[in-house]
Amino acid sequence: MSTVRPEKQGIASGANNAIREVGGAIGVASLAAVFSAQGGYGSASSFVDGLVPALWGAGAVALAAALALLMPQQRKADGPAAGLAAGDAAGAPVAV
Q1: Spatial CB neighbours of 16, under 8 Å, sequence gap ≥ 6
Q2: For residues 91 and 53, what is the distance between their CA atoms, to the nearest angstrom?
Q3: With 90 as the cut, is the pLDDT of residue 37 above it?
Q4: Crossing angle between the packed helical segments 44-70 and 9-38, to the nearest 10 degrees
Q5: Measured between alpha carbons, how far is 22 from 86 in angstroms, rounded to an integer?
Q6: Which of 30-34, 58-62, 68-72, 92-96 is the least confident region?
Q7: Which of 16, 38, 53, 82 is the 20 to 30 Å CA partner of 31?
Q8: Claim: this prediction has a pTM higher than 0.70
Q9: Alpha-carbon distance 9 to 6, whole Å?
Q10: How far is the C-alpha of 40 from the C-alpha of 19, rounded, in Å?
Q11: 61 within 8 A of 69, measured Cβ to Cβ
Q12: What is the three-class DSSP state of 38?
């Protein structure tokens, strides 16, 4: 949110939340499709046959999430808090 202009932060937050929810729904549906294509609830053996590839898919998603957290972040230098020193409060006058 720090890279979005203050007047657009509500829109950006709503878009971020919607994309996160859709991504979660697609992820669950995809892993359920893998489970049902490879196995099912008919027997214990069929359940395990479907569960193993679905867990491999979940592991791949977890690995991708870990890699995403390791990516360097780029921040805008001219954001709303760019001119503030570490101890200054937001909106307080700054002595020059």
Answers
A1: none
A2: 53
A3: yes
A4: 150
A5: 37
A6: 92-96
A7: 16
A8: no
A9: 5
A10: 30
A11: no
A12: helix
Among the listed residues 21, 16, 52, the one whose alpha carbon sits nearest the alpha carbon of residue 37: 52
8-23 confidence digits (pLDDT tens):
999 999 999 999 999 9
Rounded Cα distance, 1 and 47, in Å: 43
**Which value, in Å, is the radius of gyration of the alpha carbons in the chain?**
22
What mean pLDDT comes out for the span 16-40? 94
Q: Which amino acid is at 31?
A: L
Return all residues near 85 (Cβ < 8 A) that are at least 6 apart.
94
Per-residue pLDDT for 52 more than 90? yes
Bin 91: left if φ > 0, else alpha if -120 < ψ < 50, else beta. Answer: left
